[in-house]
């Protein structure tokens, strides 16, 4: 788990790092969902930037940041696809973004 990294990046992106009771899911159809105590949103969980779906949000955001251009340029978008090499590359990219943001603080 890279929760601290994912929380830091999520909040830097201006999004809510959801606060919810993991023990109290609301069962809807086949999904377990939660209500966030902070934004009151109906959520499935927090960002995990090693997943393809959440990673897309980070990648799109990072491409818009001028100070991330050198990091973005080091990675090939196609390398983020898939479950094996893709996970490693997504993880490495999130680490690079996290390091950059921490250094700027
Ligand atoms: Zn929230």
Q: How would you describe this structure to a colleague?
A:
By secondary structure, the chain is mainly alpha-helical. The protein has one domain (3-104). It contains four helices and three strands, in the order αβββααα. Helix 2 (52-64) packs across helix 4 (85-104). The chain starts with a helix and ends with a helix. The structure holds zinc ion (ZN). Zinc ion binds next to loops.
Can you summarize this structure?
By secondary structure, this protein is mostly helical.
Keywords:
mainly alpha; 105 residues; 4 helices; three-stranded antiparallel beta sheet
User: Roughly what percent helix?
Assistant: 40-55%
Count of DSSP E strands?
Answer: 3
State the separation between the terminal residues, measured CA to CA: 23 Å
Mind summarizing the main beta sheet? 3 strands, antiparallel
Structural category: mainly alpha
Count of helix runs: 4
Low-confidence stretches: none
